[in-house]
Amino acid sequence: MPGDKSIGHRSLLIGALCDGDVAVTGLSDGEDNRSSARVLGQLGVSIVRHGDGRATVHGVGLEGLSPPREPLDCGNSGTTMRLLLGILAGQPFEATLVGDHSLSRRPMKRVLAPLRRMGLEVLAARDDDYPPLTVRGRRPLTAIHYDSPIASAQIKSAIMLAGLYADGETTVTEPELSRDHSERMLAWLRSGKRLAARPIHVPGDLSSAAFLLGAALLVPGSDVVVEDVGVNPTRTGFLDALALMGAHVAHTAPREHNHEPAADLHVRHAALVGTRIAGALSVRAIDELPLLATLAARARGATEIRDARELRVKESDRIAKTVAMLRSFGVDAVEHDDGLTVHGDPERPLSPGQVDADGDHRIAMCASLLALVAPPGTEIRGAETIATSFPSFHDALAALGADTRLIRT
Ligand code: S3P
Fold first, then answer.
1. Is residue 310 lining ligand 1, measured as CB closer than 6 Å?
2. What residue ranges define each of the domains in the chain, with the CATH number in brackets?
3. pLDDT tens-digit profile of 121-162?
4. 152 lines ligand 1 (CB under 6 A)
């Protein structure tokens, strides 16, 4: 598996603030992690890749970043832009942040509101705090307590990173616990008020592994093991939802890397049943909800996904996109404000889908999986976006024996 995207971003962005060289292993080749590395380079941090997921982040310490000469291009990566804004809040210089078409449509007010309270100045923004953004930080920042209205690790992490530059204790609460990779990594690196250079291993990405586990559940006869996958409990909602749908994913060889649990995951093709996914489970499975909806198409009975309004502001409006993608394969799916319902039927024939991924890697991967169980003729436009998180996805499917000729991109 490619390394976990969320932990990879943090190994680079937080590693850059350490006192000395941080040896990273398991780092993904995906474009999103590359965006974090590239913008850090513009801020004076040298990151050397040695191949095979190994890299050295030459940390410059909390005060060592330098002003960028050009706009910082965060590409497709919301995590890069939002976490970076938290770091930039504590830098006494100006910086401009830009992103691609998809990132330019994603709301930044959710991080700028608390960061403004801490002292970040927003000098320019489009409309209601959409990128491109020009900001100026300062040091020290004002410590705050922030009661976040949204369960979001990006908001929480931006505030925590700004908190490294604040003049007292900064605290954040959220309605449900979002992924806690920043908390774990800061605890791993913390040395008094500074960050020590310690090695970081990035375990395999459960959000990518989920697509291979999902392929195994869809394609009869499959039996798949994925090795060294992160199983942080704030991320394993997908596995819990699968259990509700009647699929058992076995964990073997449990281990821990820099406070992050990991294991090998084993699944066999299984008949699925519909379920309800809501509340904390939706938060813990947020990036896998489109995939769960896709699997629900081949499950017996209805699957209802609720409390997932956040899906509307991901790389695309993932509620609308997932419903449109499923309908294009002939699946009965209904959109709600905060989620969707899929009326699954394993016997109902699918039609070949016509899908426009529109800058959303997870939609393109969901459509690829349905293509494996639909008649030939599925076409996925914009599938190159898969490279943001899982560049080797189609090769991995082919290596598992999937007939990837069914996926036309
Ligand atoms: C991420 C947090 C989540 C998730 C995204 C990665 C992170 O976003 O959807 O893919 O690495 O912090 P939110 O913080 O907006 O929920």
1. yes
2. 5-201 (3.65.10.10), 206-408 (3.65.10.10)
3. 999 999 999 999 999 999 999 999 999 999 999 999 999 999
4. yes
